[in-house]
């Protein structure tokens, strides 16, 4: 397979009064400081004006639309706020906005020491590592499908996983038990049994059945824990009568009684009881203490005393506290904010949504369509996230934008192009750097697969997109410009000769017979070339496919079995064959098969992608599934597509695809088929 490397519900603009704004990015929970000089620079203020706003509370800090409390430095040099780590399936960075407006200042909470409270709290450690994705084992597109390890009970070398964590300031005399929660997922439908050890000592076994998530809870004496490094070992045990069993470990939660001692000049805990708390271990005597029970409206604990590296204050049972020395106060990353032109107004027939780095070629594509009479607009993906997602990335923001523009723009978009490859590695866990335009995933009986149609289905939620949508899976401006050249060449020639490929007939379908049904739909003047695997040797068929492509066809249809990198299990045509193509006429490809358009795998190019992204040949567009397809159902789509492409009236490729999807919506039985057939290419491609 081909690997390509990248070369480098409220409007935020309205909420920020169309004023300058600071975009503050937080990756970990803690107290953050923003200087007055930086505020002045980012908000286009004088330093005296910034200081005045700080003094009178004239700055509004917000997170996901809600006001967040802040407090000024005693010397007026800036402001402090409590920022929280964020972890969604799409993002790992939290975003706070600072702009002129009525601010919410942090309140004060009483904190004068009184009677001694408990000298410990229950420390909770969440242990999680995303090592691999199991999209094919999930049926919930909104679930966390990343896992830490896979345990196979039937294979001794793979039945055990060991997970480490650090513990400190252990309190063994509290009478409070330690706990371990194992968050697991049954990857097979069999019964599962897990045995858990902590530092080599067994703490119990747990069981559950089926392919589903489960949390197993274990209690243990704190004396089993060690100061410093500890291990939790999880072993999958094969149940009687079960031949094969697989369990995925998602994460672990460990809790234990811990003395009130700061770690790296920070301490975070929930008070086990009311009374005086003494938190030791600070390197300086200037610790701030916040009651963060309500994290967006924290309270500054007053009356706290600081001496000898410790801070003393009165706590309230059940309240959450965060204490930090000045040495541990962080500075948020300040991100540039694109021009917040409101997305709520405007109009365009043709919209290109582009991530940062692809705006140049995206505008060239829009200009090309504009020269053909379409009203066009390029919308930056980051602007969509900022205005409709409060700066936090999610493909749901794109869907919200398409719905908004459909309802409020005049003209409303007819064609939408997603510029950029997208993968299910939303947070770039695998460090491939190729998730430029994140997709939505769709649930199918065979797992989760990418579905750009879901992004554009917002009126009736009937599976049929409400605008014509396509994705050009590029990684750079250069790749997009090369694609535009192919597009222009195709539109200069128009739709003509066709090539039909068919796999060997088997229990999945009479692929040759189905292909002949498609050929019968062509007008008499269209030449149809056939390459049927059942009529030729594999070598002859492969040679014939290449020869026909090199000679020139404008439509290429395949029916049969397929995979990520191939037509037919035997390899009638492969991703490895794409580099040798030099066909000057690049066809539209329709592969009514399985997975040849699975563009969402990080670091890989599917056959459909490879064909479309071939610079000097290949295909100009590919309508192809991202997941497993069923031939009897795919034939409905295929017949409707061919009929529409060659009816002499359909002007755009997107219209032919829309017609096929609407026909299937009326005649098909398996709705998920509407989700997995994506267009890799421009839906506004002219057919004649």
Shape type:
flat
Instruction: Name the CATH architecture of the largest domain.
Output: 3-Layer(aba) Sandwich
What's the rounded overall pLDDT mean?
94
CATH class identity of the largest domain: Alpha Beta
* Strand residue content: 25-35%
Q: How are strands sequenced across the largest beta sheet? A: 36-35-37-41-42-43
Number of strands: 43
What is the third-level CATH name, the topology of the largest domain?
Answer: Rossmann fold
Provide tags for this entry.
alpha+beta, 688 residues, Jelly Rolls, 3 domains, Rossmann fold, 32% strand, 14 helices, six-stranded mixed beta sheet, flat
Q: How would you sum up this structure, described in words?
A:
The protein is an alpha+beta fold and 688 residues long. The chain folds into 3 domains: 166 residues, no CATH class; 140 residues, Galactose-binding domain-like (Jelly Rolls), CATH 2.60.120; 195 residues, Rossmann fold (3-Layer(aba) Sandwich). It has a 6-stranded mixed beta sheet, with helices on both faces. Strand 41, helix 11 and strand 42 form a beta-alpha-beta unit. Helix 5 crosses helix 6 and helix 12 packs across helix 13. The chain is flat. It starts with 11 loop residues before the first helix and ends in an 8-residue tail after the last strand. 47% of the residues are buried. About 2% of the residues have low confidence.
